[in-house]
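Its record is retained below.
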Amino acid sequence: MNVYLEILIRSLGAFAGVIFITRLVGKSQVGGLNIADWVNGIVIGSIAASLATDLKTPAGIYAFALLVFLVLTVFSEWVGVKYRPVHKLLSDDPTVVVHNGVILEGNMHKMRYTVDDLTTQLRQKNAFNIADVEYAIAEPNGELSVLLKSQVAPVTPQDLHMPSKYKGVPSELVVDGVIIRQNLKQNNLEEDWLLGELQKQGIQSLKEVFYASLDQDGNLYVDKKQDKMSYKQDVTDKLPGKMPQ
């Protein structure tokens, strides 16, 4: 059999195999990537590595394999756009994992989606209490969409028919004890002003500051390297012991 025909056949089989295995792994392991991205990142990356390091095999062999996977990836994306059933096969469907504060264990088991996966992604969406969640939906790319119950959803100025003003990004003024002078200059501020504000908060040296930023209203936020806290919440399930630093 011609070597390039054999590579073509093997590539077709490998491409189909990767899609099949990825569907079996479940949403929680895809890490936010769709199937095409996963194929590109794992399989094509492996072929490229072999192309760079395997000096015994002609480079044209690996180059042809890369081309085949590139064509297959682009073709699968194109077909997925044109034909919805193919898109469903490649991308899967959204899955409800929480409904009205109740965890749907059956749906989670089908996806091999753990409680740790769920609680981690809920916290990333500022939902720290499952009882407050109306809907949590695991999307095909592994992301979690969360709708809070109306009773606990934040009230917006729009809800109250109130005008609101622009809220920009705070400017970093100190990072790990080092002044970001460019940001000071952009805010028309001097180093003496910054040091004076730090002294008002009982800070005598920049070495004490881990992070400091200035918001649009002129409020200075400061985080010290040595935080004096009487209690630190531990969100792990480790046995009681030394408090985390």
Observations:
- The first strand starts at residue 95 and ends at 99.
- Residues 171-224 form a domain with the CRO Repressor fold (CATH 3.30.240.20).
- The first helix runs from residue 3 to 25.
